[in-house]
Structures are given as structure tokens and as C-alpha cells.
Amino acid sequence: MGFTKEGKEKKASKMEYNETPPHALIQYLKLHLKEFVLHNYIARWQDVHFKEAMSNVYNDMVISCIDFSNNYAMIHWHNF
To answer: What is the pLDDT of residues 19-60, one digit of tens each?
Structure first.
């Protein structure tokens, strides 16, 4: 694991293996299933609209794909 320019530790994903009793797994799923379903719905909706936008790009258009979950901001300005 490394560090960012600001000195913060970079986050990383890793695969884990856990043996869990069925009742514990069901309890966990009960708590997180609604959140997962909503996330999946939004991700699929975004994918459909992104693909549609990419198939209809004109010369005077810009399509930007940004991960706003990382607290990025977007500022739009043009100087003609």
C-alpha cells in the first residue's frame, strides 16, 4: 500500500475468505441488501445513459466521466 502526494494512505481492495454460519450471513444480507440493490440500479442507469451519450457525440460536445464519490468538483466555464 502506498501514499498520496498529500501523505494520506491509499485505499486498496482485497479479497477475503470467511466461513460464516448461514444465520449470520442472512442477518448481514438483511442489513445491506437494500443498499446494494439501490447501488446496482444506479450503476446500471448510469451505464445505459453513458453509452447513449457516447453514441451521440457531436463535434462541439465534451463528455466527462468523473468519480464524484471521491469528492471531486466540476467547474464549467467557456471562453469564446
So the answer is: 989 999 899 989 999 998 998 998 899 889 889 988 988 888
Q: Per residue in 30-68, is it b (16+ CB within 10 Å) or e — as a string?
A: eeeeeeeeeeeeeeeeeeeeeeeeeeeeeeeeeeeeeee
The closest alpha carbon to 62, from 54, 70, 74, belongs to 54
Beta bridge partners of 2: none
Residue identified by cell 444480507 is 29
Q: pTM for the full model? A: 0.49
Residue 4 in contact with residue 10, Cβ under 8 Å? yes
Do the beta carbons of residue 1 and residue 10 sit within 8 Å? yes
